[in-house]
């Protein structure tokens, strides 16, 4: 059974269940949605990420979550907190926040709504001193949302990841401290 971590006006953010991998594969794992995230994944890759998220939640009380639309019960995305685990990142272990929204729900404010709840979770319940978010320079929508959330560009944390296509190899980071977040509440 999944734990509900947060509710917003339109969303329920809950922990991952084993049965979520097939639904994520169907509605989130599309070429358009995954274009800036390394491309479409195989089912076993999604299952491995889910298992990793479930283990992280069991150990540390945070992980990525499923975004469920209250009005329909549909999976509309995922979001949450993990630890920076890219071996090329200079800040491994930092609390990393992130999100992904299915294409037919883009431009409705779901990512921002979910991330505001995730930031509250990160700072008030997980007690993270700061969070970071990673994207590529080409993912304009992603870093613009980071800025709307009050995050600051951190060029000192940028790195190159050859696992991504050339246009996405430069990984950029934004950060937000608990104090900065509290000032905007």
Distance between the termini: 32 Å
CATH superfamily of the domain at 4-131: Gcn5-related N-acetyltransferase (GNAT)
The helix-strand sequence is EEHHEEEHEHEEEH
- Tell the overall outline: globular
Q: Could you describe the largest sheet, including whether it forms a barrel? A: 9 strands, mixed
Q: Please count the helical segments.
A: 5
Named CATH topology of the domain at 4-131: Aminopeptidase
- What is the average of the pLDDT values? 95
* CATH class placement of the domain at 4-131: Alpha Beta
Strand content: 25-35%
The CATH architecture of the domain at 4-131 comes to: 3-Layer(aba) Sandwich
What is the helix fraction of residues, given as a range?
Answer: 25-40%
Structural class based on helices, strands and sheet pairing: alpha+beta
Strand tally: 9
Radius of gyration: 15 Å
- Unreliable parts: none
Structural notes for this entry:
- With 185 residues, the protein is of the alpha+beta class.
- It has a domain of 128 residues: 3-Layer(aba) Sandwich (Aminopeptidase), CATH 3.40.630.
- It is built from five helices and nine strands.
- Strands 1, 2, 3, 4, 5, 6, 7, 8 and 9 form a nine-stranded mixed beta sheet that branches.
- The longest helix is centred in the first third of the chain and has 18 residues.
- It starts with a strand and ends with a helix.
- 33% of the residues are buried.
- The mean pLDDT is 95.
């Amino acid at each position: 059974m999944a734990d509900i971590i947060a509710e917003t006006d339109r969303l329920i953010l809950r922990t991952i269940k084993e049965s979520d991998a097939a639904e994520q594969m169907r509605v989130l794992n599309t070429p358009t949605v995954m274009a800036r995230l390394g491309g479409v994944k195989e089912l076993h890759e999604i299952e491995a990420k889910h298992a990793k998220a479930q283990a992280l939640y069991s150990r540390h009380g945070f992980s990525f979550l499923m975004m469920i639309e209250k009005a329909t019960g549909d999976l509309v995305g995922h979001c949450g907190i993990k630890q920076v685990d890219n071996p090329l990142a200079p800040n491994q272990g930092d609390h990393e926040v992130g999100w992904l929204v299915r294409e037919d729900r883009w431009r409705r404010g779901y990512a921002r709504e979910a991330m505001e709840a995730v930031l509250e979770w990160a700072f008030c319940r997980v007690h993270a001193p700061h969070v970071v978010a990673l994207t590529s320079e080409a993912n304009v929508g992603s870093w613009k949302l980071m800025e709307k959330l009050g995050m600051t560009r951190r060029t000192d944390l940028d790195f190159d990841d050859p696992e991504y296509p050339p246009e996405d190899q430069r990984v950029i980071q934004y950060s937000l401290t608990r104090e900065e977040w509290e000032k905007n509440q």
